Each structure stands twice: as structure tokens, then as C-alpha cells.
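hey m, so remember when u said the C-alpha cells were messed up on ur end? i reran from scratch. heres the input so u can diff it against urs
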Amino acid sequence: MNARDAMPEGGKLTISAHNVSFNEAQNWRHGSVQSGNYVMLAVSDTGIGMTGETQSRIFEPFFTTKEPGKGTGLGLSTVYGLVNQSCGAISVYSDQGQGSTFRIVLPECKSERCQPEEQVPSCEPALGSETILLVEDQSAIREVASDYLMRLGYNVLAAPDGAAALKLARTHNRHIDLLVTDMVMPNMGGRELAALLSEMYPCARVLFMSGYPDCATPGQDDSIVDGELLQKPFSLKTLAGRVRSLPDVS
């Protein structure tokens, strides 16, 4: 979609993939990879290109050069997070009027290593009764996770961002035992929300959700916040297991 928008009068979109080997670590503008064998995916367009300033911020959450209502600014930041979570790297090369090229490298996976593990019966998630404040700006994830946790017996308060979550916490008449929040959201992010909520509920535990490795979101404050991290993507059973395993949530 970005390539389409960059070529309003038409143009050429090229997608290619090939194997590459690095004899030493590669340090790119937006990431780095260790030596080894990789698969490189390249996507190029002949569109309007980008300025250096735009390229420096292209992977920041909510950064967009599109008109209001035309984009969320989350597409490339999500790609950045997933690529880094997979031990890969992404880079962008662009000049105004000369188009843009995005290159992604991911570790090579031998076919014998990529066979799915034999499925074994898993235990059903433990039930609970605590009150959870669930904060996630993606409505589909929020609704599915909320419904699943409620079916396990939890009382769930769901909000789309930090500001709405604080308002809900102030008007709710029950103690909040656990905050489960996405790290990157509009209006107020997860770190700021956790700090403010701790003033009202100092004993509440915190579980952050993020698609970025080690909470390293580009363009975001990397201050340490007391809480555990659940990497996206995750299964509902994984979410339930992490909620159940947190200290004082039993």
C-alpha cells in the first residue's frame, strides 16, 4: 500500500528474494545482524521517494506522512518489530524522485529444522477471579483477549488506550490486580500508563505486550518500568499462562 501511494500516476513495483551470506556482522542504519546465512527480501518502487528526515523516522510508531485518515503510522513499525523479533534486520534506501527500496534479511532456516514439532496434549489454562485492566489499541486483539480471559473467570476491564484506561480505573469500584497493556498506543503508551496506575494501585502487577524485542521501540522512551514482557504474536493460552504465573496473581 505504501508503494501504491508513492506512485499516484503509476510505476513499477519489484519484489525479489535471494540467499545471502555475511562473513561478519552487518550494521545498518535501522538495525544489525550477525554473520551467517540469510534470506533477503527486497521491495522496490519507482515512486516519489523520501527525504533523509523521513527515512530517519520511517519506523517510528504513529509516524506518517499521509493525510489524516489515510494512514495510522503503524504498518512499518509493526514490520520493524516482527523482523527484529525474528533476529533479522530491515533497511530503507531512497532518494526524492528516485523511488524507494526496502530490504529485509531473515536467518536462513533449513527445511529439516522447520518441521513443526509433534503436537502433544496441553493442559487447560488455570482459572482465575482477579480483576484485569486490559489495554490494547487494536480492537480485534482487545476483544478476543478480553473474551478469553473472562471465560477463564477473570473480571476484565478493557480500554483502547492509556487515557481511556485511567478513566476506567478511576471510576471502577473494584481493586485492579493486574494491568495487561500494549507498549505502543496513541494518546498514552504502556509505560506512562503503568506509572500512573501504580499511584492508584501500587500492588497491581504489570504485563506489557509488545512486538518489539526487549521493549526496544524506535523513537520511544526506553526507561525501565517494573513489569514483565509478553512478546507479540502470542497465543491465547500463552497469555493466560503468563497472567496466571505472575507473582501475587493466584
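this time it looks ok to me. Residues 117-121, 215-224 have pLDDT under 50 and may be disordered. if urs says something different then somethings off w ur setup not the seq
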